Amino acid sequence: MVNQESSAALEAQGFALPLSARVVLIDLDGTLVDTAPDLAAAANHVLRSLGREPAAMPTIRGFIGNGVRELMRRALAITAEPSEADLDAAMQGFSAYYGEHLLDHSQIYPGVRETLDALQLQGRELVCITNKAGAFTEPMLERLSLRGYFSLVLSGDSLPRKKPDPLPLLHAAAHFHQAVADCLLVGDSCNDTQAARAAGMPVACVSYGYNGDEPVHCLRPDAVLDNMLELLNILA
Ligand SMILES: O=C(O)COP(=O)(O)O
Ligand SMILES: [Mg+2]
């Protein structure tokens, strides 16, 4: 489904649909892979080890998007805002557990692999841009046999600033010597749309990911995709 109002805004910036998108930047959590079950298990493992009640799955889903440290901070803050030292200690437990249970329940979303195959055949450069720490991003992509699709992977700790800052998007466009307007970000949350708008890059949102309780069309992306395969319909 193409958002007519924001596609008009795109045209006003000189973009036209369908998008050329020589470089397609794709978010990881909530866009390529449904990672919430294992992220929730890791956060709840820490809460239990501290003698706290585990948090419900929808609550944890709402905490995803700003990196794993922020996820853990928000989970601890259900009871009381943690000190940095307490959060450091919690992150040791989180990282040890999550590293061991990265893919117990996480799954690639329907249509993702077929879409990546098609985009690759079309000769587009693919970049994975995630706020997830690199220590988890790389093994996750490898073990799901997704790493080979991406000529560049930018994790939350790859650059000095992460989404919603536009830096990773601008870095990817420059890496491939492409104009920002000739790239496209595909994501699932306000971090993605904010980063794209700040960079001046078109953005499509999947409707099935993690954006709290807010439906993604409220973020006014240029297109909403109910399945990743719909991406192929908006590209020239
Ligand atoms: O690690 C997170 O919180 C989310 O990462 P994402 O940027 O891939 O959605
Ligand atoms: Mg995401």
Automatic annotation (TrEMBL):
GO molecular function: metal ion binding; phosphoglycolate phosphatase activity
Active-site residue list: 27 (nucleophile)
Residue numbers binding Mg(2+): 27, 29, 188
Cofactor(s) needed for function: Mg(2+)
Keywords carried by this UniProt record: Carbohydrate metabolism, Hydrolase, Magnesium, Metal-binding
EC number: 3.1.3.18
GO BP: carbohydrate metabolic process; DNA repair; glycolate biosynthetic process
Pathway: Organic acid metabolism; glycolate biosynthesis; glycolate from 2-phosphoglycolate: step 1/1
UniProt keyword Hydrolase, yes or no: yes
Enzymatic class: hydrolase
Swiss-Prot/TrEMBL catalytic activity: 2-phosphoglycolate + H2O = glycolate + phosphate
UniProt cross-references to Pfam families, sorted A to Z: HAD_2
Function comment: Specifically catalyzes the dephosphorylation of 2-phosphoglycolate. Is involved in the dissimilation of the intracellular 2-phosphoglycolate formed during the DNA repair of 3'-phosphoglycolate ends, a major class of DNA lesions induced by oxidative stress.
Family from the record: Belongs to the HAD-like hydrolase superfamily. CbbY/CbbZ/Gph/YieH family.
Name of the protein in question: Phosphoglycolate phosphatase
Organism: Acidithiobacillus sulfuriphilus
